[in-house]
Fold this sequence. Notes:
Oligomer: single chain
CATH architecture of the largest domain: Alpha-Beta Complex
Structural class: mainly beta
Number of domains: 4
CATH superfamily of the largest domain: Transglutaminase-like
Number of strands: 40
Largest sheet: 11 strands, mixed
Amino acid sequence: PDLTTSTREEKKPPLNGRRALPPNNSNDEENEVPEVDPFGLIPRGFNPKDYLRVVDIYMFKDPQEINKQQHHTDKYYNPKLIVRRGQPFQIQIDFNRPYRPETDQFWLEFLMGRYPQQNKGTYIPVIVGNVLKPGEWGAKITHRENNSIRLVIMSSATCIIGKFRLYVAVWTPFAILRTRRNPATDTYILFNPWCQKDAVYMDDEKEREEYVLNDVGIVFHGNVEDIKSRSWSYGQFEENILDACLFLMDKAELELSGRGNPIKICRVASAVINSRDDNGVIAGSWNNSYDYGVAPSAWTGSVDILLEYYSSKQPVRYGQCWVFAGVFNTFLRCLGIPARLITNYSSAHDNNANLRLDFFLDDEGKVDTRLTKDSVWNYHCWNEAWMTRPDLPVGFGGWQVVDGTPQETSDGMYRCGPASVQAIKHGHVCFQFDAPFVYAEVNSDIIFSRMEKNGTQVIEKIDTTHIGQLIVTKEVGGDGMVEITEEYKFREGSDEERLALETAVMYGVKKQTTRDISYQPQTDIDMDFQVQKAVLGNDFKVTITFRNRSRNSYTATTYLSGNIVFYTGVPKSEFKKHSFSAKLEPSSSSSFDVVIKSSEYMSDLLEQASFHFFVTARINETGKILAMQKATVLEIPTLRIKTKGELVAGKEMSVIVEFTNPLKQTLENVTLRLEGPGVLRTIKKEFRSIPMNSTLTWEVKCIPMRPGLRKLIASLNCDALRHVYGELNVHIQKP
């Protein structure tokens, strides 16, 4: 037999019938990249040395150099370049001779993993052009001197995160010539909470410093009557921690192409942080015997645990909830996802997610441990990670619960989250992932029931206030404790709180057992609401309409909640709460107006002026719930742009920007920006104030350079008003 062929056959990775390529889920593996990539037959006289050749590449990767400074990655103890996505960085390339743009052609290639593919985002060719688009891959030459060029490279705000290999490719008529593999030019790309286009964008610098850059934290434990605290070292910047965190994603077998999505990363990480069913990082133990391992309370931080796991590839013993949460926090912050550690006092562990903890009593009134599967934890720690939720309706972005402690399986694995905190608060537990479980952790009623001899169940007591009494986290910029209970739930005993519970039960209907047939939706009443179209700075009204199709008269306890949300759907603050009782006459419709005054929302207003309203109503006579939510955006005034003079390349023209202040206040410290690639460079101008109803006019003279269709873009920005834009298409004639 011909041995050469059979050994070659062995090498090929096993394929299955469903994939053209084996799974690509290791950031560590590499493929061979040819240094000479011929287009066909290479003629005999071809000598690569005759063409442009890369002699050296400088990455400006030291902590004090520009890249790590601008990208807030100077704290990482890692010699390689680390940048955040969607933000430009610089490199320098030295060639063997001066670069000639007319004839020389080169590009950059970023590769990840064993099977780089362009459509999977694991092979990224970056072409050198004239314009950098924010948040999209591109490169642009900023300096040329002797044999060197300086490049600015922009990465995509959605690109996958991890470690990329960098090659420079030069085009020649007969082949592509590449630099050889050089680990010194490897580039880590991380999430970017500083970039508005990134799914993890956070707008407050103090919060970014706390939730991304702070490498120590506080764990609150003990119980409600006796709160204790301890420090925890996250150490996300320590040596090898970044590599260890990337290894966790390899271990979880997360496809490389999915690694740009914080929702996916959180979901797989919540499974791999614990050792159940995937040999993950930490083995949990709650039985007080910690043989052959470290007691959970002995750990002081995450670094030892992650490094031990990274080297041994075996679960580290032992952890309990705050250890899972501490390590998870390190993982999230290390990759650039804003994260914080949360403690929930009196946390329900609801075994069958029916929003109630069933404690079964025996004849003597003692808890029957055989029947009782649910439990209450003195406290439970989990994490919140900050991100948009494009997979959910508007309003559910922002903080998401993720929990690495193994409690119950979710889709067949021990994991939990991400679940929107906002959805949990309002009882909208129908939205993925694991919201009913988390809702139950903070909201369950405890129901004590006893079995009669004849098999009927008698409910003895219902305790509605014990679970989730207090939910806390560390304050921003300090070591104090801040209570965030109201992020998760309405005030105990309030109408809104019961309403949210009943909404949750309605959405969790599939979880109910058949004997709970009392929860049938109210079919004879419809509720809807309309938000009046409004211009920023004006009052407007929300009209709630009920249609009672029955012959009974009802009263509805109605609650309207108005939240200011980021354009990504992440809520910032609740600016309007309004409860009222609505009388619903038989066979008739009734409408109720709630007026929203500009003074109620202007102070908290965010850039895109979008609101999100929840309306929930309980029909008091039947206990049925009607719930509805809608997002709405205010109309923001725009800038007007005009041109004056001939639009001819090489001739002077004028651009005029006009803006009329529509607000009932003077705008102060206003910045205008105007740019038009090929027409004029970005120009900024500051205006001290624009009184109400007055019009500002700004004229800019410029000489357009390139003929063709161009776009002028202007923006206005001040504290009271953001996201004011104007644009104009102009056709520049050839001279």
